[in-house]
Amino acid sequence: MGDNCAVSWLEVVRGGVLVTVQDRGRPGYAALGVGTSGAADRRSHDSANRLVGNDPGAATLEVTLGGLQVRAHGQATVAVTGARVPLRVNGIPCGDYSATHLSDGDVLTLGHATAGLRSYLAVRGGVDAPPTLGSRATDTLAELGPPSIRTGDRIPIGTMARQWPAEELIPPPPTVGAATLHVRLGPRDEMFTAGALDTLLGQAWTVTQDSNRVGMRLEGPVPLERADRGELPSEGMVPGALQVPAGGQPVLFLADHPVTGGYPVIAVVVDDDLAAAAQLVPGAALRFARG
Hints:
The protein is mainly beta and 291 residues long. The chain folds into 2 domains: 9-156, no CATH class; 179-290, Cyclophilin-like (Cyclophilin). The chain is 8% helix and 33% strand. It contains 3 helices and 20 strands. The protein has helices spanning 42-51, 194-202, 274-278, and strands at 9-14, 18-22, 60-64, 69-73, 76-84, 87-89, 92-94, 100-102, 107-110, 115-123, 154-156, 179-185, 205-211, 215-219, 235-236, 241-243, 251-253, 260-261, 265-269, 285-290. The strands form 4 sheets. Strands 12-19-16-17-14-13-20 form a 7-stranded mixed beta barrel. It has a 6-stranded antiparallel beta sheet with strand order 7-6-9-4-1-11, with no helix packed on it. The radius of gyration is 20 Å and the shape is elongated.
């Protein structure tokens, strides 16, 4: 099995809708107004790195809704995980959630996503971009890290490879219908009526088109009613926070969320469910449950 020693870069033949460089983020800078950022679906990001034998901190490409096409200059080993996309090498179908070996000049094409929102393309050695505050992640809100990937870009390949994994294939996650995200109530649930808490957990919510890496706006038939309409000072925010603006329709914060916010947070999605949340496409239905 080859390595990436002879590979210097990948050429972006077609950039897709939104492609960003992501790793495990830059924790510890909230006091400076900088969020952690990193892969929105860290589980899929880590799986892609594992398939090609990378250090877990190696950067991947986060591809929204598919559509990316790259050409290898030299040999490369790649893997695609996350949102399910049809893959082709030089027009010949190949599988996701497995290691794929590219020769010099081979073209890898990610089709449009058939399930999920964000795919992760790992290359053995990692995407080599200049780190900012110790991370190569693109933070779309703070505008930190590398710019979004576009057609014609050259993507250098790094040296963050480890020993090859024992397997070249891992099972993809099962496809599910309406997602259930588990939440812990608070820290401001006391500012809402008892009926609002029942509504949060009792009705289905829809992901609106107004969604991105910062967060996704949700819409339900009954808005969440506040009991206390007093002003709330800005306070710290975390990934998974369900912030409720005046209209009563919540916003679920994702990887590039602001570090502070002034609307009350009725609940927070547990860490284990953030990967599933990051894969919800506009129009998807979801429910919340205590967890």
